[in-house]
Write a structure and sequence with these properties.
The protein has about 375 residues and is of the alpha/beta class. The strands form two sheets. A seven-stranded parallel beta sheet has the order 3-2-1-4-5-6-7, with helices on both faces. A six-stranded parallel beta sheet has the order 10-9-8-11-12-13, sandwiched between helices. Helix 9 (about 235-245) links the parallel strand 9 and strand 10. It is about 40% helix and about 20% strand. Helix 4 (about 95-105) runs parallel beside helix 5, helix 8 (about 205-220) packs across helix 13 and helix 11 packs across helix 14.
């Protein structure tokens, strides 16, 4: 029987973030007959700790004493030796830097960094990453746009960067009806539901959709906007809807655990972000057969096929958003056509099975 390869998955904390959730999903779907997984959280634990423990793999949390605790490099190196790691894979900046140096100290040749976020790093972070990246054998970008950005901004060699797009669990995110959900939320049967799922932060651009709303409501007064997610802009965005005298058309639902049902309740999905790596939530909406109107930033155009699965618009442009939404509402047959095209595109290009196969091919090189 072929020996299992030991993979140390090093992550910066176990918070409920996109990168951490995608890592949890990936580990859950890797073939346990082929890989022995060890999960190490550097810096802190977090609310996802129990979910990671349920995977049944060893989970070790290395607590840091201050903001950038370099002593964790030595603790991590000790664990790499203890578990005789064949591969070290790091997720998120702090893990990238610590993992690169600890692997170099222990002689591990295969070090993969998964670039899952698009945060703009400060100069000192970019410098630290550039040094660490010399000890990383491959960086995995979540979109071709991010791959290009890594090569240009972080001066990585093109031969050391590959793209593996996010994948969606097609069994979990599927087409279903609106049974009961609309009534519970106070949404009338004749209302058109436009949904956004995103943290309420500047990056996600909610204010531009709110500013686009008066023109949309002028044409279609029966539109209801549903915002799912929480964040520091919540009250400010609510205040903006009231200043524009359209507050009754908006529902702020906060964090939810029934995203699939809420997506299926929707007629159109909108993501007005200012920047994105590769928005997983767009794939989720497309898997539920929803047309998507999104800003043409970073990796988003790799998911949304303009005029086929939805429309791509300019960022920070309420007029562009309102025009695209009204255009789609003026041709209701396209809502269904684009929705069918969305589901088909995800099935063909962005399934979770496809993503996992590409990771396993990388691990099996």
């Amino acid at each position: 029987m072929k020996k299992k390869r030991t993979i140390l998955q090093v992550v910066n904390g176990l918070a409920i973030g996109g990168g951490e959730l995608k890592l949890l999903e990936l580990i859950r779907n890797l073939n346990p007959e082929k890989y022995r997984i060890v999960i190490i959280s550097v810096g802190q634990g977090g609310p996802l700790e129990e979910e990671f423990r349920r995977l049944g793999y060893p989970l070790i949390i290395l607590e840091k004493r201050f903001a950038f605790d370099l002593s964790l490099i030595f603790k991590l190196a000790k664990l790499i030796k203890q578990f005789r790691a064949d591969i070290v894979m790091t997720t998120l900046f702090y893990a990238d830097v610590l993992g690169a140096y600890a692997s170099w100290m222990t002689g591990v040749k295969r070090v993969y960094s998964w670039e899952v976020v698009t945060a703009y790093y400060q100069k000192r972070h970019v410098y630290a990453y550039r040094i660490a990246s010399k000890k990383i054998s491959r960086v995995i970008a979540v979109s071709e746009a991010i791959e290009k950005k890594l090569i240009v901004e972080r001066k990585l060699s093109p031969s050391n960067v590959i793209t593996i797009h996010y994948g969606i669990d097609l069994e979990k995110y599927r087409v279903a009806g609106k049974i009961g959900k609309a009534e519970k939320l106070g949404i009338e049967e004749n209302e058109i539901v436009i949904t956004t799922v995103a943290r309420l932060t500047d990056q996600k651009g909610h204010r531009y959709l709110i500013e686009a709303a008066p023109e949309i409501l002028h044409a279609y007064p029966n539109v209801r906007f549903v915002f799912i997610g929480d964040g520091y802009l919540k009250q400010e965005l609510k205040d903006l809807t009231h200043r524009l005298k359209i507050g009754e058309h908006f529902l702020f639902l906060g964090m939810r655990n029934d995203i699939v049902e809420l997506l299926n309740l929707s007629d159109i999905f909108v993501l007005p972000s200012l920047y994105e790596g590769f928005p997983n939530v767009v794939l989720e909406a497309m898997a539920c057969a929803k047309p998507v109107i999104a800003t043409a930033v970073d990796g988003t155009p790799e998911a949304v096929a303009d005029s086929s699965t939805g429309y791509l618009v300019a960022p920070k442009n309420p007029k562009s958003l309102s025009d695209a939404i009204v255009r789609l509402l003026n041709h209701p047959q396209n809502i269904h056509l684009f929705g069918r095209n969305s589901r088909k595109r995800v099935e063909e290009l962005f399934s979770l099975q496809n993503q996992v196969q590409k990771f396993e091919a990388l691990f099996d090189e």
